[in-house]
Automatic annotation (TrEMBL):
Name of this protein: Uncharacterized protein
Length: 136
């Protein structure tokens, strides 16, 4: 009787180890474990060489290139506020979205390249608000 109980426990432990190993193999062991909340992504940036600042609503800051700051929109109508002489590249903007400009300053150029917008301009001494309006 003792040997059958010992065999039963051994086979049960073997089956449990097999299930655990299969689950670990399919899903993977995570160290450290997954976090519930991801780290916040930046929505504003200042260019280190050209000394202009951009704050966005509806777009994430991705990187700084030699002459521009790069953002990626996550809403259909992103808004970016800039200070200084600027050059921005914003991705994931609808190709037919219209750029509305508010504030002091001017936009000297807006190029459309697929889902990317390349915008250059000068906000004078104040803040220039760039708002892309989704086509109706």
């Amino acid at each position: 009787m003792t040997s059958t109980r010992r065999a039963f426990l051994g086979y049960t432990a073997l089956a449990g180890a097999t299930v655990f190993a299969s689950a670990a193999g399919l899903r993977g062991l995570r160290y450290p474990s997954l976090q519930f909340e991801p780290a916040p992504t930046p929505r504003s940036a200042k260019h280190s060489a050209l000394d202009f600042r951009a704050d966005s609503q509806g777009a994430f800051y991705q990187r700084e290139d030699a002459r521009q700051l790069v953002f990626r929109a996550y809403v259909p109508e992103p808004v970016v506020q800039v200070n200084g002489v600027f050059e921005l590249k914003i991705g994931n903007v609808h190709p037919k979205a219209r750029l509305d400009i508010e504030g002091d300053g001017k936009v000297s150029e807006e190029r459309i390249d697929g889902l990317f917008r390349h915008v250059t301009g000068n906000s004078s001494k104040g803040t220039l608000t760039l708002r892309w309006v989704f086509p109706k």
